[in-house]
Design goal:
Elements lengths: L6 E4 L21 H9 L4 E8 L7 H10 L3 E7 L16 H21 L3 E4 L5 E2 L7 H17 L5 E5 L8 E2 L4 H11 L4 E6 H6 L4 H10 L3 E6 L17 H13 L6 E3 L8 H21 L2 H9 L3 H16 L7
Parallel strand pairs: 1-2, 1-10, 2-3, 3-4, 4-6, 6-8, 8-9, 9-10
Antiparallel strand pairs: 5-7
Helix pairs in contact: 1-2, 4-5, 7-8, 9-11, 10-11
Length: 333
Amino acid sequence: MTTYPKFGAGLWHFATYVDRYAVDGYGDPRTTLDMIELAGKVGDLSYVDLPYPFTPGVGVDEIKQALAAHGLEAVGITPEIYLRDHVKGAFTNPDAGARSRAMDIMHASAEVVRELGATYVKLWPGQDGFDYPFQVNHRQQWKRSVDGLRELAGAHPDLKFVIEYKPREPRVKMLWDSAATTLLGIQETGLDNIGVLMDFGHSLFGGESPAAAAQLLIDHGKLWAMDVNDNLRGWDDDLVVGTVHMTEIFEFFYTLKINGWEGVWQLDQFPFREDSVDAARTAIRFLKALYRALESLDMAALAEAQERHDAMAAQRLIQDALLSSMTSAELKR
């Protein structure tokens, strides 16, 4: 039997959703405990990333009990610094009170990381940015964001913080929008407990090569976590991983493998109309096949093809590995 990496998922994978058309939602609301129960039904999940605050009435003790009951552990805590109170930003909000409230949520999330024994606080500052030219003072925005990040991580030197970058949405232009920009901001803090959670779909959506972005982050020692999903490149669709960009996700994981990167293979998917447990199982089915393809890939021959910049030789090797893994008897288990 193949020994696979550990798989995880953002707990929001098991939520129900609304959008600007189905404003009444795609299902009845679920509590944090409901979502943990669904995550436990997948069978191959070991970790979840939990949004914080939890749903009303749910405390850390209840979360501990639910995780244990379903064979799960917390890998990260994601403070919700992108909701109504933060529509003009968390770190960069022009209202000092709103900035302070956002910091309170992030500090509280750090305490939850300690209590649950999680690996990191994940920061997704989705509202930090702008929508129109001339709307903001760009120097002030950048300074507030870097200073706020330094203040937060500096107050918890025993913990890891990861930033998840994205080019846009909900803001038309997000401040932490690429691997390179995020690296620069981290370097400016002068702290060594801040890294990056790279979302494969955000990288695609932002026009990056996910494999090249991953290599850049690895070379700077800052790729500390990752999420995988898929999209049609025009938007952050959060589709099931491998359903669109199979070759590029393979190159992404190949890059992790040749660099000896080890960590949780984590899903960040939004199955609006699909069954969330089935979507997770389908994603992990693909990731297992991809893992086997990496094991069978002729690395030496691929390195030789890359040395010659021989695209067709490289593609034949990739196709052989991927297609054989997808027809493996083990895939049917």
